[in-house]
Amino acid sequence: MHGARKALSEHASAPADVKAKVESAIAAVEAAAKGEDTEAIKGAVATLMAAMSELVQHAGPGEQAGPAEASSAKQAGADDVVEAEFEEVDKK
User: Fold this and answer.
1) pLDDT at 56 over 60
2) What is the model's pLDDT at position 72?
3) For residue 43, what are the CA distances in angstroms to 8, 37, 52, 64, 72?
4) Residues in Cβ contact with 40 at an 8 Å cutoff, skipping those fewer than 6 apart
């Protein structure tokens, strides 16, 4: 739920009806999680995933910084290798 709420706040520019679907889906998952019906929980989670997908599709430019950008940022820093010499010292 935390991730869904965070995404909802990050995509504040999404249409109100899309944000309302996500909020409703979050509430449905929370309600289903209080019970023991696994099929109800799975259905609520599937609805939430669909709503989150729609939310991300409506994200404005610059709001879709996903794993691809994070990966390229890690690769950019990969060339910053520092070489060092060391000497092993036996402690006797």
Assistant:
1) yes
2) 45
3) 20, 10, 14, 26, 35
4) 32
